[in-house]
Specification:
Bound molecules: ligand 0PR
Structural class: alpha/beta
Distance between the termini: 54 Å
Number of domains: 2
CATH topology of the largest domain: Aspartate Aminotransferase, domain 2
């Protein structure tokens, strides 16, 4: 650290210089995050100093977390689900595996995970000493549920299904996985970090949540399609009592035990996540999702006109193409299989799509 503090003016000039190096979201087509909704930013600023790690000091903020969990649990067709606000999909996935592992103490535990799963599951397996069995995908990039079933054995503590895969935006056959989970008496975790805030608002929702009796837990991230500030995730568990297996004693806090992974936890992004849901309501979210899906369709159609075939027709707003190069100035990503990937987040408006297609067309000309 410096010996003497830096004058505020100089400091903030330096900070704005750094901030200018960041890319604006306008040309970012690779992200599952988006600029926070204005009500999220406003709510966040109101709750800056709050810490959900010691909820007795911030009972108003703690009630907002409970309200957020109730809203999301109801959206996922199980109003009585247990839950808490995590730092995002990674923490939710790790915590789901912790619960599943504790439910079934075996000597060499394994988990069965789709080949399309997010890399957070690699971290979870590493931390928890779980062997990862990877189930192959079908031609539509959804997991092959029969292959999942064949990989389950007496040491399988958890099966994972994904609602809105990171790379191709597909929803796995969760209903089939839920049957396998019930038949084989295995915990089923659904990673709906992305799709959890999309699928319920589609014209034709695809079953993926607690409506299916075999689903035990769900990850859903307000900081992705929920347009909240970062960090805001949520882990939901059908049977709230299952959280107690994660409890540790916290003798000197205002609560006597906690089941969360983090200790100190932001209240600001939780207030922000709640604010967006409350402000938009079901109607508002349906409109946002309808816009993103419409833009996805337009992009796919426009790209195919330019000779860039879709890899698959996605279930949610992630479009992928056989196309090697993006025009200068645009950020797209490339999947493990080599497809160009564009996430049609709320900031990727129709105008942005048209501008991207125009640059693609000029590049091909
Ligand atoms: N599960 C799924 C299905 C995800 O897509 C992601 C993240 C996670 C879990 C992990 O969530 P957290 O990152 O909140 O812990 N998916 C994006 C990805 O890895 C995250 C992301 C967001 C990446 C913005 C880049 C970016 O600019 O692609």
């Amino acid at each position: 650290m410096r010996e003497q503090g830096c004058p505020e003016g100089d400091l903030f000039s330096f900070l704005s210089l750094q901030r200018k190096k960041d890319l604006g979201y306008r040309n970012i087509l690779s992200s599952m995050c988006t600029p926070p909704h204005p009500v999220a930013a406003r709510a966040h600023a109101m709750f800056l100093e709050t810490n959900l790690g010691d909820p007795g000091l911030f009972p108003g903020t703690a009630e907002l977390e409970e309200l957020l969990v109730r809203r999301l649990a109801t959206l996922m067709h199980h109003p009585k689900a247990g839950g808490y606000a995590t730092s995002g999909g990674t923490e939710s996935n790790i915590q789901a595996f912790r619960i599943a592992k504790k439910q079934k103490p075996v000597e060499s535990p394994n988990v069965v995970v789709p080949a399309s799963s997010h890399f957070s599951f690699l971290k979870a397996c590493d931390i928890l000493g779980l062997a990862m069995r990877t189930a192959p995908l079908d031609t539509h990039f959804r997991v092959d549920a029969e292959a999942v079933e064949s990989l389950v054995d007496k040491d399988t503590v958890c099966i994972v299904g994904i609602a809105g895969t990171t790379e191709y935006g597909m929803v796995d056959p969760i209903a089939h996985l839920a049957d396998v989970a019930l038949d084989r008496d295995v915990f089923l975790h659904v990673d709906a970090a992305f799709g959890g805030m999309v699928v319920p608002f589609l014209d034709r929702p695809i079953p993926f949540d607690f409506h299916l009796p075999g689903v035990d837990s769900l990850s859903v991230d307000p900081h992705k399609m929920g347009m909240s500030t970062i960090p805001a995730g949520c882990l939901l568990v059908r049977n709230p009592e299952q959280f107690s297996c994660l409890n540790v004693d916290t003798p000197y806090l205002t609560v006597k035990r906690e089941c969360t992974l983090a200790g100190t936890r932001p209240g600001a992004s939780v207030a922000a996540a709640f604010a967006v849901l409350e402000y938009l309501g079901m109607d508002g979210m349906r409109a946002v999702v309808a816009g993103c899906m419409e833009n996805t369709r337009r992009l796919v159609e426009g790209m195919e006109t330019l000779g860039c075939e879709r890899a698959v027709t996605p279930d949610v707003n992630v479009a992928t193409f056989s196309c090697s190069r993006a025009p200068a100035g645009w950020r797209v990503s490339t999947t493990r299989a080599g497809h160009m990937r564009v996430v049609c987040m709320p900031h990727v408006t129709r105008d942005v799509i048209e501008a991207f297609l125009k640059d693609m067309s000029d590049m091909h000309a």
